[in-house]
Amino acid sequence: MRFQVKLVMFDLDGTLLDTAPQIAEAANRMLVALGKPMLPQAQISSYIGEGVHKLIKRCLTGDMEQEPELALFDKAQPLYHDFYVAHANDSQPFAGVVPALQQLKKQGYLLACVTNKPEAFTLPLLQKAGLAGFFEMVVSGDSLPKKKPDPMQLLHICQKLAVLPAEAMLVGDSETDIQAAHAAGCFVVTVPYGYNQGRAIDVATVDATVQQLTELVRLLEPPALLKQGLEKTIQIS
Ligand SMILES: O=C(O)COP(=O)(O)O
Ligand SMILES: [Mg+2]
């Protein structure tokens, strides 16, 4: 089975980079500065995925949806920002990320990064990890009015790179990615090692899963072999 895509978009946190250790460290420093108890890294990891505001709110309340007091949230935001900036760039790529991006780039795919992380964090992180040069476009959580699970970021990338959504794939680690890809009409492939709110991915809702990104290469039809005007279909080879 090979997917006929020209554009491969990658989620950042939990897919390309293992950012949870630095996020947990910054969140715990924030909690301590606010006189609150620290949280286990696994709990903080389960709060990643819907942007930094939700992450901070979840850390403050210990709940996925509850709203903290506004004054507390206002105090927490700059603390988190400063603590995260100090160590964010220590995050490392997951196994297989660099060779997979090298190979896909060589084969002629358009590559993009689409994350709910704010731009101020995203670009330095990608640069420090040596990944920035692989991507035609990087769209962050605050680059556009809406972010994943809304399809806006994905559709924006497709439009700018002149690729139909049905010729594009999102590779992600979470339900947020799956929903965004479905809403955009893109293929979606997931990795199992990320931060899907502490849950396993529902494999019935995705086009394929890979253990690590190097497995993507054999799932994709090299773009040079693609004919024009393909429908969103999977070719059986
Ligand atoms: O910042 C987040 O909450 C998650 O970012 P991601 O979209 O790269 O997983
Ligand atoms: Mg993610």
TrEMBL record:
Signal peptide bounds: none
Catalytic residues as annotated in Swiss-Prot or TrEMBL: D11 (nucleophile)
Keyword entries, A-Z: Carbohydrate metabolism, Hydrolase, Magnesium, Metal-binding
Catalytic reaction list: 2-phosphoglycolate + H2O = glycolate + phosphate
E.C. no? 3.1.3.18
Tell me where the transmembrane regions lie: none
> Required cofactors, per record?
Mg(2+)
Give any Pfam family that matches: HAD_2
**Gene Ontology MF, one:** phosphoglycolate phosphatase activity
Where along this sequence does the record place binding of Mg(2+)? D11, D13, D173
Q: In which pathway does it act?
A: Organic acid metabolism; glycolate biosynthesis; glycolate from 2-phosphoglycolate: step 1/1
Q: Does the keyword Ribonucleoprotein apply?
A: no
Q: Does the keyword Metal-binding apply?
A: yes
Q: What does this protein do?
A: Specifically catalyzes the dephosphorylation of 2-phosphoglycolate. Is involved in the dissimilation of the intracellular 2-phosphoglycolate formed during the DNA repair of 3'-phosphoglycolate ends, a major class of DNA lesions induced by oxidative stress.
Similarity annotation: Belongs to the HAD-like hydrolase superfamily. CbbY/CbbZ/Gph/YieH family.
Protein's UniProt name: Phosphoglycolate phosphatase
Source species: Methylophilus luteus
Query: What taxonomic lineage is listed for the species of origin?
Result: Bacteria, Pseudomonadati, Pseudomonadota, Betaproteobacteria, Nitrosomonadales
